[in-house]
Description:
Blueprint: E1 4-12, H1 17-30, E2 34-41, E3 49-57, E4 71-74, H2 77-83, E5 92-96, E6 110-114, H3 116-122, H4 129-141, H5 146-156, H6 165-176
Parallel strand pairs: 1-4, 4-5, 5-6
Antiparallel strand pairs: 1-3, 2-3
Amino acid sequence: MRSKANVLFAGFGGQGVLFAGKVLANTALLAGREVSWLPSYGPEMRGGTANCSVCISDRPIGSPLVTNPDILIPMNLPSFDKFIGSVEKDGIVVVDSTLIKKESDRDDLNIFFIPATEIAEKNGLKGLANIVLLSKTVNVSSIFSKEQLIEGMKKSVHKKHERLLEPNIGAIELGWNL
Length: 178
């Protein structure tokens, strides 16, 4: 298991970027880790930029801002283009290849192209590409176990949205096994 991770989620508002970051942060809290969660979004309700920095460590965290992520989850082409150059050497990038039809010229990264939007929709989980990507990321990075991620999801879904818990857990299962 990794002792630390600086994760950057990036995409458009409405793609669940902030929620995916919240799930990861809650997973870290439940695992007894130090964590910071810093959402950033444009003034638009939907369609504007949305980014989320999540720092996870066994030690106190000095800054909540992730400028050089070791893990990047871009959910659209502008985010991929903007942040791919800032990922640390040997970093992990998990790309929604349904929406991003571009390769990187960097050969020092571990890049996974997952058609998350397409897979989620085909499995009756429309709108949950964010959780498919999160799950795949947690699996390949060994930050947490699948069981820990599911517990983080349970903590993240508010009681008034309890009906969404089962589909989100389904998206975790789906992403984990890709």
